[in-house]
Amino acid sequence: SEENSNKLNFDLTEDQLTLILLANIKNRDMGVEAYHENNQRGHCDITIKLNNFIWHGEAKKHTSSYSYLFKGYAQLTERYSTGTVDSASGGLIIYTRNRKCNEMMTKWKSHLDKSAPRIHACKAITITPCQKNPLVFYSQHVHTVSQLDYEVIHYPVNLYHEPVDPDL
After folding, report:
1. In terms of C-beta density within 10 A (0-12 exposed, 13-18 middle, 19 or more buried), how is residue 87 classed?
2. With b meaning 16 or more CB within 10 Å and e meaning fewer, what string describes 26-59?
3. What pairing do the DSSP bridges indicate for beta strands 46-50 and 53-62?
4. Which residue has the higher pLDDT, 6 or 155?
5. Who has the most CB within 10 Å: 2, 5, 57, 74?
6. How many independent structural domains does the chain possess?
7. pLDDT tens digits, 3-41
């Protein structure tokens, strides 16, 4: 069941979880290429290409530190992304086993809203809720290098598992 796989999956590394995620995204028949760069400084965790479009993502395990998530956000927005027309968005994938995922995402949003303006040349960030999923939100800022709008989706992958029934 999904719950039982959650219990096992959080014990995997960020790299292992990301490889599982990318296996479900790759589709060479449709021209979608998905890559994972592991253990290489200077490379993004996730790169997805479709024709000229390039999407970068950073994947982080969240336990309690929002500064660790912010490090991933900063790497994505200030180191790996170009912010060009064909690469105007990216994502932060947050692996968590937090029982209160909505509360965790609200705290992350607050941390990001306070910290992100300090690292971007534009000194500002806008946060927008996702209309389809209340656990997801978007952040927008003017990219430091391209000076074009850049958007990041903040997407939790909840791997919480602690059933009330001990037999599950």
Report:
1. buried
2. eeeeeeeebebeeeeeeebbbbbeeeeebbbbbb
3. antiparallel
4. 155
5. 57
6. 1
7. 455 555 667 777 777 777 777 666 666 666 766 664 444
Structural domain includes residue 85: yes
pTM of the complete model: 0.82
Which residues are registered as beta bridge partners of 94? 60, 156
165 belongs to a structural domain: no
What is the per-residue pLDDT across 117-149, written as a single tens digit (0 to 9) for each? 999 989 999 999 999 999 999 999 999 999 999
Give residues with Cβ within 8 angstroms of 105, minimum separation 6: 94, 135, 136, 137, 154, 156
Q: Which amino acid is at 114?
A: K
Using alpha carbons, list the distances in angstroms from residue 64 to 43, 81, 122: 25, 26, 29
